[in-house]
Every structure is written in structure tokens, then in C-alpha cells.
Design goal:
By secondary structure, this protein is of the alpha+beta class. The protein is 29% helix and 29% strand. The protein is built from twelve helices and 22 strands.
């Protein structure tokens, strides 16, 4: 959705159920009679066959009971369930709306258990076209996370704060390539001219931060800055044409690493899908169409999505209200890098970009609420409003101290969760001064605060 900026990384969780849920219990809603558990690891196997939108699937979830369990719920809206076992024993189950309710032998609190579900998933979006599936002539990909994607693909715990590790095995005709988030660890030829590719995501990942696709794609792999492996996935027929523009990732990765600290994963790349898909980030991979890579706002788009590897994937927001941490950072650094391309090294170019968003911030707050207390339907306040909060902090503490704060947040919460309170506390501790009031105003106030260092800026865009 660039340059309008994307509604992703759960920025629209509040509206998702209305978009994609059917009757019954929507994904993410609690169910009476079921208990809580922590997801630890998923093994997901899917088989794509040409000419049908149905895929056989098996998902095995390793989990730990957070309390004594006589029943628990998985989120699943993708198709028909065939069999469910818990620790290898058949378990009772039923489906209600977007919930798969499982009734195993009683599990004591703290017990680790394994649930395996065999199912048939159907790649069908809602009657209004909303949904995660993006079909091509022979293959598919997943669309942005605003559709709460993964519970349409496999049974899971639809909670972005419950991060887990993943193994994806995608089986497809040998002429096509199965793609998934993670490192490719096995390619296995099968009978019937099929190939299974297995990917491992060893870093804990939010449930909706993955990508799965099948199509006529090829890998382009090379060494990147600081030992990072750059691994792009592109349409085979366009590979040669895209190599030059894909090489720009190196500069963008160096630029962000200098500001945020080491890249949090071992690999990164761009998936350039066929078909029409708005840009979005998944852990270690950004989905950006080939046409967008060569368009005018490409630098903004690419750095926006790359920033999400630090804020969104590695440092994951605890709740929807904390989502400004992901979207605000992505917009802040995307706009900063893009401004620097027009006027290299110019602080004025970045300030001009921030001033434009400052000018419409009050209207955005009136419509969507403040960045850390958004209304259910919001897209701009956490993105642009969050970026303005970061800019105000930088204006207050200075560029060098701001960089220290950012690097500290990225390091302290690497691989985990961070809240708005966590960010404010870290900023206060690293800066050695109380910036609580400043950040509280920018993140929670109904009225746009004055921008430090720019007394001439007006929330309505008017000159002083």
C-alpha cells in the first residue's frame, strides 16, 4: 500500500475479525472451558497440487500447559479437520467458527505436550474478497498480515505475543518452487514428479510473521554485510533483470545496522511475488513486487520493511496498543533513508518529511486516536504518529543519544516482547534524564504536542 504506507504487523488486528471471521467464535477470542498454553514450536506440512485450491496439511504443535488443561483451543479458519492427536493419542475435538477445540487426556500445569492435526485447507477468501490468499496461474502466496493470515493456513495459537519456532515443509510439483519463511534445510525429490522443501525458522517468530508461497521462482543467494546471507526469491524469468536493484539491499542493511545495531537474524531477502500483493514484512523476508522495487518510492518501501526485522520481528509489540513501536520505527527510518537519497546527508530533508506528517497529525489523532491508544480502526496514527514521537525524542536528547536509546531497545528486547512502558523506561535509563512526560504526551495525548526545536511547525500545516 505504498506510498500510503501499509496496514501490517497487526496494525489492523482490531478490524480483522470483522473482515474475515464467519459465524461462531472468531480467532483470538477466549472460549469457556478451555485453558491457556504457551506455543513452543510448530511443524507445518502443506502439499500444493495444480488445478485445485485444496491442500492437504499436517501441523504438529509443541506446547506447554500454562495451567491444568482438560481442553484447549487452536485458531483455524482454513478448512476441514480430519484427525487430532495429543501426545500420540486420539483426542476429541470440535470446530466452532474459527476455533478448533481439543479435548485431550487431562494435562497438568507446566506439562509439555504435542498436538497433531491432519486437515484439508482450502485457499478461499471471503465473499468480499478479503483474505490472505493471493492466487497466480499455477501457485499462490500469502497477503499482508492485516488479514490475520496464518490461522487460515494451519491450526495455531493466534496470539502475536506467543512467539515460537517453526519448520515448514512445502510439497509442490517439481517444476515449481515451494517457498516459506526460514532457512532452506532440505530439498527432497518425491515420487510423482514432486519436490518437498523444508525451511527452519530457529528464531522465535510471531505467528503472523511468516510467508508461504508456491510458483515458478528461483533463489538468488549471496554474501551480505557483516556476514548476513542475502537470499532473494524472484520469478525465474525475471532473475537477471532484478539482480541490480536487489543489490541495493546491501547499502540499506549497512545504513540500518549503523543506527540500530547488528541485524538480529542470519539471513534476509526480498520475495518478489507474481500477482498483486501489497508490500509487507515477514521474519527474515520482505514481500515486495518486482514492479515496486523499481518504482519511485522503492527506497522508502524497502527500508520500511527491512526496519521491521528489528522492530516487529525481533522486538515484537506486546499488544495492539504497542504497535506504534513496529510501525512508527518502520516509517521513521523508511522516511529518513528516502529523504537522504534526495539530499544525501541533509537533516533538512528528513525534517521536511516529518513536518509534512506533523501538519496532519491532529486530524489523524481526531480520527484514529493517539499512537499508543488507537481506535479499533487505525492505520496512520501508529505509523506516522509513532514516527513523530521518535523524531521528538531525537530532537530532545540529540542524535547521538537517540541512537544509543534505539540500539539499547533493540538489544534488550531482541527475540522477545516490548511494550510502550518498556520503551519509555529504556529511553529514560539510557538518556539519564526523564523523558517520560515527553513520550507520554506524544504517544497518548489527544492533541498534537509542540515539536521540540521547531516552534514554527503547526499541527494544521499552517505557517506561523
Amino acid at each position: 500500500m505504498k506510498p500510503q504506507y501499509r496496514l501490517t504487523t497487526t496494525a489492523m488486528i482490531g478490524v480483522c475479525a470483522a473482515l474475515v471471521s464467519g459465524t461462531g467464535i472468531a480467532a483470538g477470542e477466549p472460549v469457556a472451558g478451555t485453558g491457556d498454553y504457551d506455543a513452543l514450536d510448530y511443524a507445518v506440512s502443506l502439499e500444493y497440487r495444480s488445478g485445485t485450491r485444496e491442500m492437504a496439511g499436517t501441523t504438529t504443535l509443541k506446547a506447554r500447559a500454562a495451567e491444568p488443561l482438560s481442553g484447549f483451543a487452536l485458531d483455524f479458519a482454513g478448512g476441514k479437520v480430519g484427525e487430532v492427536t495429543v501426545d500420540g493419542r486420539p483426542a476429541g475435538f470440535e470446530t466452532r467458527g474459527e476455533k478448533l477445540l481439543v479435548f485431550p487426556h487431562r494435562l497438568a500445569g507446566g506439562t509439555e505436550f504435542t498436538v497433531t492435526v491432519d486437515y484439508l485447507v482450502t485457499r478461499t477468501n471471503g465473499p468480499d474478497g478479503h483474505g490472505p490468499w493471493r492466487e497466480i496461474e499455477d501457485g499462490f502466496a500469502l497477503g499482508p498480515q492485516m488479514y490475520e493470515t496464518m490461522h487460515h493456513v494451519f491450526p495455531c495459537k493466534n496470539d502475536i505475543a506467543d512467539k515460537a519456532t517453526y519448520t515448514f515443509t512445502i510439497t509442490a510439483p517439481a517444476r515449481l518452487t515451494g517457498i516459506a519463511t526460514g532457512d532452506l534445510i532440505a530439498t527432497t525429490p518425491l515420487g510423482g514428479d514432486r519436490t518437498a522443501r523444508t525451511y527452519r525458522m530457529a528464531y522465535p517468530m510471531p505467528v503472523d510473521d511468516g510467508q508461504i508461497a508456491v510458483g515458478p521462482y528461483s533463489w538468488i543467494t549471496r554474501g551480505g554485510p557483516d556476514g548476513v546471507t542475502i537470499r532473494d526469491v524472484v520469478p525465474t524469468a525475471q532473475a537477471d533483470r532484478l539482480r541490480e536493484t536487489l543489490a541495493r539491499t546491501d547499502d540499506q542493511l549497512r545504513w540500518l545496522t549503523a543506527k540500530l545495531g547488528p541485524y538480529p537474524f542470519g539471513t534476509y531477502g526480498i520475495f518478489a511475488p507474481l500477482g498483486t500483493i501489497s508490500p509487507f514484512e515477514s521474519q527474515t523476508m520482505s514481500t515486495i513486487q518486482a514492479a515496486t522495487l523499481s518504482a519511485g518510492p522503492a527506497d522508502y518501501v524497502r527500508v520500511h520493511e527491512l526496519t521491521h526485522q528489528w522492530f516487529g520481528a525481533s522486538v515484537t509489540q506486546k499488544t495492539l496498543a504497542d504497535n506504534w513501536i513496529a510501525e512508527g520505527h518502520a516509517h521513521f527510518y523508511g522516511a529518513w533513508y528516502d529523504a537522504g537519497q534526495s539530499r544525501p546527508g541533509s537533516e533538512d530533508a528528513f525534517a521536511d518529511s516529518m513536518r509534512m506528517f506533523y501538519g496532519i497529525d491532529q486530524k489523524t489523532r481526531d480520527r484514529e486516536g493517539p499512537p499508543a491508544a488507537p481506535k479499533p480502526i487505525s492505520g496512520q496514527t501508529q505509523r506516522a504518529g509513532g514516527a513523530l514521537a521518535l523524531y521528538a525524542l531525537r530532537q530532545t536528547v540529540g542524535p547521538r543519544m537517540f541512537e544509543e536509546i534505539e540500539r539499547a531497545v533493540a538489544a534488550r528486547f531482541k527475540g522477545g516482547l516490548a511494550s510502550t512502558a518498556d520503551y519509555i523506561k529504556t529511553a529514560r535509563e539510557v538518556a539519564g534524564r526523564d523523558v517520560t512526560a515527553l513520550l507520554t504526551d506524544w504517544l497518548y495525548a489527544k492533541k498534537t504536542p509542540p515539536m521540540p526545536g521547531h516552534p514554527d511547525w503547526k499541527p494544521d500545516g499552517a505557517a506561523s
